[in-house]
Every structure is written in structure tokens, then in C-alpha cells.
Amino acid sequence: MAKVAFIGLGVMGYPMAGHLKNKGGHDVTVFNRTAAKADKWAKEFGGTAAPTPKEAAQGCDFVFMCVGNDDDLREVALGDDGALHGMEKGATLIDNTTASADAARELYAACQEKGVGFIDAPVSGGQAGAENGALTVMCGGDEGVYAAAEPVIEAYAKSCKLMGESGAGQITKMVNQICIAGLLQGLSEGMNFGQKAGLDMEKVIDVISKGAAGSWQMENRASTMVQGEFDFGFAVDWIKKDLAICLAESKNNGARLPVTALVDQMYSQVQARGGNRWDTSSLIHLLQND
């Protein structure tokens, strides 16, 4: 059993922290910007709520963070009441936020100065994966630090792997989001094409999902897409944030992302239709209602 803090109890962080307590058996203290949510978590899971990230992190072996973006990350980690100020030498800070590789490297350097380990560990699998403790975790950092952290991370993961040095986890998550963006656009066009042709789309989905076109997105979203239902999973605002990170990083490494840039623009059109909180499969709305 380890002494653990978890900072950020959103739709992902809330169940992830719960798995650390119940499945992992760890002593967990949580912090959330909305204190009532932290208190609710503590009552539900039998942990402790702290008033600041710094106080949550005090005396902890591992401190997890899962917040919104780079600025939120810097605030809860490095701000006046940030977690790093409460951590002791030899502890490890683990960031599950989907953020930039630059932010990961910045936090790594800050942790190095204090003798604290750091792992950038963005996750994939969505809300369902978090609730089921079946997330894919892509990590960047030092091998020894990762080896010690992996058994703790496994409380909410079905797969966890060290991808390379600091920042490699975030860049791997960018690859993940780039692939999903292109896949969703192709799936949207295929489903809309089949509808326009008058096919029974449930039959189409059943047949083609068993072949080379099959994917998680097809299995879990194709049927709701053709019905115009977009109240599931990962929101358009969130994928827009992630694709902005991907496009910015592509300028650093010289990779061309023409399809990603196009899909990013199309998600802007979904937002203009009021679809900020629709899930990412809502790309098809632009085709169904052109």
C-alpha cells in the first residue's frame, strides 16, 4: 500500500482515484477545485479530501494529476499551493492530463530540481475506460521512476507502457488522437454514404465491423451516429484542445497533418452549431445536415 494523492476529479479523475483506493488498496487523499466534489469522493470511497494540492501531496509516495490543460497543470503542480511544494524527495509526480510535450518537459525539469520523479502518463479509453479501470496509459520518463510507479498505475489501467523519455507519453497520446480524428471522419462519411444510398445501416455496420473496416469507434459509435445521437463520451471541446496540441507539435517536428488540420476545422463547424459538448462522433452531423 502506498500513500497517494489525486488532483482533479473530473469525469476521468473521479473513478481513477476510486480505483487507486478500492482496487489498489492505497491510502488516497484527493483535491478538486470544487471542494464539494472532493468531499463527495471522500465519503464514497473512504478517502480524505484536502483544501489545496500542496496539502494533498504532503507525505505522499505518488501524486497523480488529471486536469484540463497546460495552464491548469502548471497551477496545480507549480503554483503557490501546487503539489510539488508539498512533495518530499524521492516521491513521484504522475500526470494523466492530456497536455503538451513542452509542459511535460517543464514539469520534469522542476521535479528534477527537487529530487522528485516525474512521469507524463496521458490515458486513452474515455469515461467508460476510467470507470471500468481499463485505460491505456502512455508514459514518458526515467525507467527507474516508471518501474516503481507502474504497479500503482495498474489500478486503473488495462495497459501501461513506458514510451521513452519525458514527453514521449504525451507525444504518443498525440499519435492516438491524430488516428482517431481521421478514423471518425472516414466513419462519418461512410455512414452518411450508406444512409443516402438507402441501406439498412444496422446490417451494414454488423457486416463491415467484422472485416478490415472494423474499429472501436465503429463498434461503439456507428449506430448512434446514424441515429443522430451524440451524448456519449469524449466532447468536441476536448478533441479540439487535443488536436491543437497535435498541430502545434507538428510544427516542431516537421510532420505534415493535412487530414488532422481538416478535421480540426470541421470540429470548429460542429462547435458553431452548438455542439461543444456533443461527443466526437458528431462529425457526421455536418454531413447529415449540410
Question: Characteristics of this structure?
Answer:
alpha/beta; 14% strand; N-(1-d-carboxylethyl)-l-norvaline Dehydrogenase, domain 2; six-stranded parallel sheet; 9 strands; 13 helices
- SSE pattern, N- to C-terminal: EHEHEHEHEHEEHEHEHHHHHH
Number of strands: 9
Low-confidence stretches: none
Mean pLDDT: 97
Query: What is the number of helices?
Result: 13
Largest sheet, spatial ordering of strands:
3-2-1-4-5-6
Number of domains: 2
Taking all Cα atoms into account, the compactness measure Rg is 20 Å
What structural category characterises the helix and strand content? alpha/beta
CATH topology of the largest domain: Rossmann fold
The CATH class of the largest domain, by name, is Alpha Beta
Strand content: 5-15%
Q: Main β-sheet: number of strands, strand sense, barrel status?
A: 6 strands, parallel
- Helix content range: 40-55%
Which outline best applies? globular
CATH architecture of the largest domain: 3-Layer(aba) Sandwich
Describe this structure in words.
With 290 residues, the chain is α/β, with parallel strands linked by helices. The protein has 2 domains: 3-166, Rossmann fold, CATH 3.40.50.720; 171-288, N-(1-d-carboxylethyl)-l-norvaline Dehydrogenase, domain 2. It has helices at residues 13-22, 35-45, 53-57, 70-78, 101-114, 126-132, 143-153, 168-196, 201-208, 216-226, 236-253, 258-272, 284-288, and strands spanning 3-7, 27-31, 48-49, 62-65, 92-95, 117-120, 123-124, 135-140, 157-164. Helix 1 (13-22) links the parallel strand 1 and strand 2. Helix 8 (168-196) crosses helix 11. The longest helix has 29 residues, at 168-196. It is globular. The N and C termini lie far apart (55 Å). The mean pLDDT is 97.
